[in-house]
Amino acid sequence: MKIALLLQSVGLSGTPEKGSGSFSSIVMHEGVSENLPYIKKMKLNSEHAAYFVIYSVLCVFKARKAGAGQTTPELIKEQYKYENLYAANNDYEMDLLQDLLQSKYANGIPWNSN
Fold it and tell me: What is the DSSP letter of 14?
């Protein structure tokens, strides 16, 4: 629910179509299901959980881009660095949600040890 509100707050659909391939769809559908165990383990409230999903999916997508479609633990770890996490994406939805993440946490992302 909180992710839908965050998507809407930047002008995206709060109900992106599953399987559309858009970044917001992947955040909403795959991102939530893949990150649910971590959200529960960290006992995040709904707002922090929504931002955590955006953060996690951004890092993985940036790693895929850096690896020409492939990801490795090293590539994903590299994307956790602020200079990479906040670099431009040339993807409208990724940039909107990345800006939202940055406006919320700046360089003090709670899940990032940089």
Answer: S
- Other C-beta atoms lying within 10 Å of the C-beta of residue 61: 20
Query: pTM, whole model, 2 decimals?
Result: 0.84
CA 26 to chain centre: 9
What is the sign of the dihedral through the CA atoms of 93, 99, 100 and 102?
positive
DSSP 17: P
In whole angstroms, give the CA distance from residue 67 to residue 76. 10
> Does residue 13 form part of some domain?
no
User: Residue 38 domain-assigned?
Assistant: yes
Residue with the two structure tokens 């955590």: 52
Amino acid at 51: Y
Predicted pLDDT of residue 9: 92
Q: Enter the tokens of residue 65.
A: 């881009």
